[in-house]
Amino acid sequence: MIHSILKDKPTKLFISIAAFFVANALIAECIGGKIFSLEKLFGVPASNFSLFGQTGLSFNLTCGVLLWPLEFIITDIVNEYYGPKAVRRISFIAIALISYAFIMFYFAMEIPPADFWIGSKTNAGIVDMQVAFGGIFGQGMWIILGSITAFLVSQIVDVTVFHKIKKITGEKWVWLRATGSTVVSQLIDSFVVLFIAFKIGNNWSWQLVLAICLVNYTYKFTVAIVLTPLIYIIEKWIENYLGHDTATKMKLAAMGKE
Fold first, then answer.
1. What are residue 36's DSSP bridge partners?
2. Chain-wide mean pLDDT for the chain?
3. What is the pLDDT of residue 112?
4. How far apart are CA 122 and CA 135, in angstroms?
5. Which end of the chain has less neighbouring CB within 10 Å, N or C?
């Protein structure tokens, strides 16, 4: 029986998508501790603009935002072919494994280091490897809580908006339901993580939270628009892989029409 399950193309596709979804989410969380300058990346001067009374703002973003847009594209693909229950399942799996990873990070930081290891990278400018290790993997608990909560809430919003648009448009306008659900869910994601991590956790002012939220969302919104053609490319590949009839049946089933 197990062999027939593993040979089933929709099953193999779902396992592959789910594995990439979880891995991508975990990597995004792990690299999220680094802040990079978008302006420097493109070789342009810092913006230094003002929002809500906050001055000197520029596009300084967490490296996690490089990968999160892919999560929402994957969500839309799973939504399209497997339905909202499948999206919720892989979302809960991702959250469980991210939580598990951070628990393991915590234990790894607390384990007493070997004396020789602490100064093993002095020639590279790292005086204390234990401090460096903790700095990389020791994200604050509020940030972890905010990130996981924002991920779950934004996924639920994405699923809901996607299906509402699809019920109206049917199979037409893939770009509208994919991009529309993403831009709404990304706004929720940007606000929730900042509200929990920095408003509640660090007592930031509302003006600063909203200003940083808008900066992050501007980037995410732009990337969501730019990546829209990728939805069509992936769907075309899936239809070729599964066959037109199977792909059509799966889409109908995902909408509860079969």
1. 61
2. 84
3. 93
4. 16
5. N
Dihedral, CA atoms, 31, 58, 140, 153, nearest 10 degrees?
A: -80
Cα–Cα nearest to 182, from 73, 95, 80, 78 = 73
Whether the per-residue pLDDT at 258 is higher than 60: the answer is no
pTM exceeds 0.90, yes or no: no
Q: Of 233, 186, 205, nearest to 69 (Cα)?
A: 186
Q: What is the pLDDT of residues 178-217, one digit of tens each?
A: 777 778 888 888 888 888 877 887 787 888 888 888 888 8
Tell me the CA distances in angstroms from 226 to 26, 73, 236, one per residue in order. Answer: 23, 12, 18
- The helix-helix angle for 174-194 and 228-242 (nearest 10°) equals 120
Which tens digit of pLDDT belongs to each residue from 37-91? 888 888 888 888 787 777 777 888 888 888 888 888 888 899 889 988 898 899 8
SS (H, E, C) the chain: CHHHHHHCHHHHHHHHHHHHHHHHHHHHHHHCCCEEEHHHHCCCCCCCEEECCEEEECCEEEHHHHCHHHHHHHHHHHHHHHCHHHHHHHHHHHHHHHHHHHHHHHHHHHCCCCHHHHCCCHHHCCCCHHHHHHHHHCCCHHHHHHHHHHHHHHHHHHHHHHHHHHHHHCCCCHHHHHHHHHHHHHHHHHHHHHHHHHHHCCCCCHHHHHHHHHHHHHHHHHHHHHCHHHHHHHHHHHHHHHCHHHHHHHHHHHCCCC
Amino acid at 162: F
Cα separation, 258 vs 254, whole angstroms: 8
Q: Which of left, alpha, beta for 37 (phi over 0: left; psi -120 to 50: alpha)? A: beta
